[in-house]
Amino acid sequence: MPFWGLQKQLGIDVDSFLLRQSMPQPHGLAAVCHAFEREWVECGHGLGQTRARRECQLEYEDFMECMQRTKLTQRLRLILEQRDRMIKQGKYTPPEHHTGKEEPRP
Question: Which cysteine pairs are covalently linked by disulfides here (predicted)?
């Protein structure tokens, strides 16, 4: 920790762009993935890049899943494919409010 907060005094911010979720948010609320980013940064702090990549892989994967939602979208795609297969085989009929055939509401 520096003795003087030179960046703060001069009004410049050189390195906060590295931490996307830690930047100031509207209304002062924490960002959605802030906790995952914090865990990843705390895990890798002081280890060095090579060791941090190896030892903090789980924290990094959690953070990236929170940011990009890749596993969630893959799971949703599989569910929709299964539903389409079941409809084609005649084992499942979607309810009327899912097909758009329901009477419009006032």
Answer: 33-66, 43-56
Other Cβ atoms closer than 10 A to 59: 19
- The CB density around residue 65, as the number of other CB atoms within 10 Å, is 14
| Residue entry with tokens 């705390």 | 42
Closest CA to 67 of 23, 98, 106, 21: 21
Q: pTM score, two decimals?
A: 0.62
* Inter-residue contact 100 to 91 (CB < 8 Å): no
CA distance 37 to 29: 15
Better pLDDT: 54 or 15: 54
Mean pLDDT of the chain: 82
**In angstroms, rounded to a whole number, what is the distance separating the alpha carbons of residues 92 and 83?**
8
Q: Whole-angstrom Cα distance, residue 2 to residue 57?
A: 30
Q: Is the pLDDT reported for residue 53 higher than 60?
A: yes
